[in-house]
Amino acid sequence: MIDVIDNRYFYIHNVVVSYLFDLLPNQQLEHLYYGANLGNLDRDDLSYISLHVNKASGTVKFSKEIKNFSLADRMQEYPTYGTSDFREGAVSLEKEETYLYPDFKYDHFKIEKGKKREIDQPASYGNDSETITIYLKDVERQLDLELSYSIFENLTAIVRKAKIINHSQQEIKVKNLQSGVLDLPNADYNFLQLSGAWVKERHITMRPLTQGITKIESLRGASSHQENPFIALVDKSVTNNTGTIYASNLIYSGNFVSQVEVDEWGQSRLMTGINPATFCWKLAPNQEFCTPESVLFYTSHGFNGLMAQTHIFVKNHVIDQKWQKKERPIVINNWEATYFDFDEKKLMKLAIEAKELGIECFVLDDGWFGKRDGDNSSLGNWTVDTRKFPQGLAHFSGQVHKLKMKFGLWFEPEMVSPDTKLYQEHPDWIVRHPYSRYSVGRRQYVLDFANPEVVENIYEQMAKVIKEANVDYIKWDMNRNITEAYSPYLHAINHPQGEFFHRYIQGVYQLYAKLLTTFPNLLIEGCASGGGRFDLGILFYSPQIWPSDDSDAAERLDIMSGTLLAYPLSTFSNHVSAVPNDQVKRVTNLKFRQEIACFGPLGYELDLNKLSTTEKEEIKEWIKWYKKNRNLLVNGTFDQLLKFNPSQNIYAWSVSNSNKQVIGFYRKLARPNESLDQYFSLKHLNSRKQYQINGRQTISGRVLQKYGLREPYQFNASNPDTAEVSGDFQSYLYQIKAIDRKI
């Protein structure tokens, strides 16, 4: 999968993709190609692809030794600003307040097969991978740069990272070290980002590239509700199934930047990595710094082609694969059922009702610890509130387990309340600058997870509770972004405060690693005030994430449509909540809510005891159906069936395996007197097989693919005998199954 020709050309490829770079005249790395597989390349092919004799006008020569050579108009693998290239670079270094212009020249390479899953830091893994590391040296400044590229069988993903090593006798400061760079020869793309805010995360936004920089970023200490590290460059005529897309993502959860710079000749430079605006790393002699991994994706098959790549990569090479084999439990979460107003008796009544309906896991949310009767108390005091649990949490957990249900528990481990012993005894463990004024969010403060002692303290508190209460499932929340970032720990060890944000998220990963090493079967659901940290770094540890605090089904259609471009269905924790919905006060019917929440891990978050007998029976039957189809709905191949539209009202998607599909069709608002017959084409069917729709009609795969599946008839005031959906918030599920009859 990786060939090195003449110690000059580096060819990374498999059956679907090729990635090619070579050495420039100055011994730096030139990017040549990333796209559809080019097959076997001979020396004539390589010479043609790398030919670059036309000099761009208005450029500065790189050096007097190399005739007519400039980096200004060259595509590069890891560029440096200011060395005849005035675009933003991937690396910025300083020594004694002097800006360095490193000159990293090729030295040698190494190829390794396979990547082991190491739990200390999130990264891709897989036995079907191959990695080439390019070793470059700046002899004059005594610095080494290592660039790693990994490829996997049958995927277009290219995983990249960079490592810098200081062999000099002086300390240097790393001000910027990006994870990945992709230079492209043109800018004829739309820039796609997943943007929004709390309770409306990861909506699709597109804008055309133009000369200059188009970027998204986070400076909040987390990947954020507002932006997501995933971006894509999308062909302007893209459809669900056709068109070129280049995309990137980060296996990282902290401050990031993802940007594209278009130069005066229309070349595009995509870069992604740690946000340099809040970063400065002290690199002492003989020390090294390694970036988080970035991932590049390519497809020529539109949005569905992109999702095929991103979903398989995340499921097989980021998330622990054991969660593909283990069934995700159907949960009841007590938060919107009780908020802080509960005791053991009230919760047991909810648990018993949940068990009757077929629910498999009881998740006890916020309010079980300290004296937590509101959101202004007790964080950091992870001891059981005996007022609510007079016999202890282990007793309540035991009662839940006797019902043959799993037991889940909420934590917000990164935060502390001012009324706790932890806060009062360790003021130096709190993130805040040493001045008199500092910000307060949700009446709580952030713990300094850059300090290993803090991480260890929280681990010991959590591990004690998890062990004593026999916890199967954790909901890990994080409800406050970081302000006035300052670490007393870094000050004490004489490290720059620019290290804080990166060390903080490393501390979060260390806590995850400690917990999962001690409790390897623990299912941890990521949550950050909903979807404020929905990224590949968290998914490395948490196989699923609470995607938004907005549980309104209509809003979830848009959240899911955006998020699914980058992350698979198995990562979604979907809850059916009460109406009017607590976030938007919208009223939707139970059928609509359940038929959206079933795509991915299913849960409920409402007071089941307040439901009518009819509603309970509807849920009970629905859960029976879901359990029969759970593996398909969580792990099946996902496709969008209708074109994305910023003001979308109708949605249709499918999940499929080798012989079955479930298709969800949704309409937010009813439209009067629309056309009776509309069709959408299906994918992943055998044109020579027959398929049965909802146990009734039998239609050939050829017709369903080329002619399409009919949309459900909408009530139009004149068709009460044939209408299949009516009113606002319509949903209709199709179950399509292959039958033993070929055409």
Summary tags:
15 helices; 743 residues; globular; alpha+beta; 10-stranded antiparallel sheet; 8-stranded parallel sheet
Task: List the topology elements.
Elements: E1 2-5, E2 9-13, E3 17-23, E4 29-36, H1 43-50, E5 91-95, E6 98-100, E7 105-115, E8 126-138, E9 143-152, E10 158-166, E11 172-184, E12 189-197, E13 200-208, E14 212-217, E15 231-235, E16 245-250, E17 256-262, E18 268-274, E19 281-283, E20 288-290, E21 294-299, H2 302-317, H3 322-325, E22 331-333, H4 335-338, H5 344-357, E23 361-364, H6 393-402, E24 406-411, E25 415-416, H7 421-425, E26 445-446, H8 452-468, E27 473-476, H9 488-492, H10 500-518, E28 523-526, H11 536-539, E29 544-545, H12 553-563, E30 574-577, H13 590-597, E31 602-605, H14 613-635, E32 637-640, E33 650-656, E34 660-667, E35 679-680, E36 689-693, E37 697-700, H15 701-706, E38 709-710, E39 730-742
Parallel strand pairs: 22-23, 22-31, 23-24, 24-27, 27-28, 28-29, 30-31
Antiparallel strand pairs: 1-2, 2-3, 3-4, 5-6, 5-11, 7-8, 8-9, 9-10, 10-20, 10-21, 11-18, 11-19, 12-13, 12-15, 14-17, 15-16, 16-21, 17-18, 25-26, 32-33, 33-34, 34-39, 35-38, 36-37, 36-39
